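Re: the request from the purification team.
They wanted to know what the chain is likely to look like in 3D before they choose a buffer screen. I agreed to run a prediction and write the result into the notebook, where they can find it.
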Amino acid sequence: MARKIVDTLEPRKTVPATLIGIGLGVAAGSLVAASVSALAGYFARRVVTPEERRASNAVIREIATDAHGKLWMHLARDAETAEPGGCTFLAEFDACALRLSAPQEVPGRPKLVARQIEAVYRGNLEGVKRGYLSGAMYEHPSDLGFQATDVNVNLEIGDGPAWLVPGTTNPDVWVIGVHGRGARRTESIRALPALAKTGVSTLLMSYRNDGLAPTGPDGRYGLGDTEWLDVEAAVHFARSHGAKQIILLGWSMGGAISLQMADRSDLAHLVDSLMLVGPVINWVDVLSHQARANKIPQSVGRFGQWLLSNEAGRWITGQAAPVNLKRLNWVDRAAELTHPILLMHSKDDQFVPHGPSLKLAQLRPDLVSLKTFTNAGHTREPNVDPEGFAQAVSDFVTARINAHETA
């Protein structure tokens, strides 16, 4: 039965994959300087500003029915539509939300890719021509058969809606799911089958500026430098509701957020360990990669980083305070780590390169273990290799439970 889930992100404004150059080098002196400043400012603002709409780049060519009566969506082939693993299709203007299978070839039509329509969460495809493909395949824990209670975590800026999935054999062990940039609490649903094997409780939280929790004072992402306070509130909630052992599960920017909480919070001692999927270990590395991917000159990219991390850039970025990029660099700060960490990162992550994860595991083999994946896009590890992902999660959680019991 179709239903409305408020967590589903609205389609967002389309932004070209490659930024349009401003014409550096065609003018001299002040014009060049102004162009560099404008592009650097645009780049910096994009990093910290929540987008109003997702880029709906997946184009539907046709809906086909096979011999068994199953519906298939035929999409124009590109890197996104052909990306391995299942996904969710979110139509423009929130017309519908569907779960799609992993891609398959369309015989004799190499410019198309086929994905089976496995579930209709809401709406229908009437008049829908394009949409956005999300790796968060499920809209509610019940889509995987899990009972979840709606709860509110008391953030310093207001109530943050969360789902609590109670544990069975180990209900006093809590895993707190911390989603990534531009995502919502639905991102962690994919981990529930693996966590259920260990019998733990799971809290899928929201945090400032994610479109579900309240907006922060400046309405800007802090890249982990501010959001960790909301994870601190979630840890306090877990502790006050019976948690005796707490593990953080961070996705992408949620990894950076979780690392900051485990480092800076007065409640850090209540955190047993961390599991991080496609995590941002070093924002400088990610921002440099994104600048290259968008064909932004290196000097402009560095200036954009400077704007993000200095007081003088606040009037351009709209931040209440600059982001401390050095504090967010855990390759340089590897010696300061104190919690056991499981890193799960694809070698083919096109958004957050896995290099810093590999380096961190090499620097701190006493605390950090790394499970690498292949063929998976950013945070698509459980979509592409669900068995490998589930095994890594359940093995780590079980080991942490055993370590806690013998301590």
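For the purification team: Residues 386-406 form the longest helix (21 residues).
Please add any questions underneath this entry.
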